[in-house]
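User: C-alpha cells for this one?
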Amino acid sequence: MFAKDFATLHREYALRGRIDETAPVTSSSEVVVDAPAERVWEVLADLRGWETWAPGFRIRALGAVEPHREFRWAQNGTPLRSRFAVVSPGRELSWAGSALGLYRAVDRMVLAPEDGRTRVTLQESFDGPFARFVLGERRLRAAHETRLAALKRHIENH
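Assistant:
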C-alpha cells in the first residue's frame, strides 16, 4: 500500500531534512517575509499560536516542540498524528505525520535569511491510497500557498 512505512519516513527522510521525492504527491512553495528569521521562527515554533493565523489548523495534543516528540492536530477537521523531526531554531521545522491511518506525509518549513527578510520554503510529500485523487499536487500547493500567505500577513501585521 505504501512505498515507505512511517518509521522509515521519519528516520530516513524527515530527520535528514528531506521529503520523499518519490511519493505520488509532492509540493514546494515559498514566500519572503519582511522579518528576520528569528521572528519567523518564534511564530512557527509556537504551534498553539498557529490556530490564530493558519486557516483550518487546530492543535489536539502538544507537548514540547523537539525532535521525536509526537503531537496531534487537525487540518480542516481531518485528524493527524505527527512526530517532530528537525527542530532547528531559525532554520527548519519538520515532521512526519499520518492521517486516518491511511496517509503519510513529510512536512518541512525551511527558513533562509535574506537581507533582514526571511525566505520560508514549505515542502511536503504525501502518500497513501489514491493519493493523487485524495489530495493531488494542485490542491496541496494551493493549501501551502494559503498557509504561507497567512504566515506572511500575521508576521508583517503584528
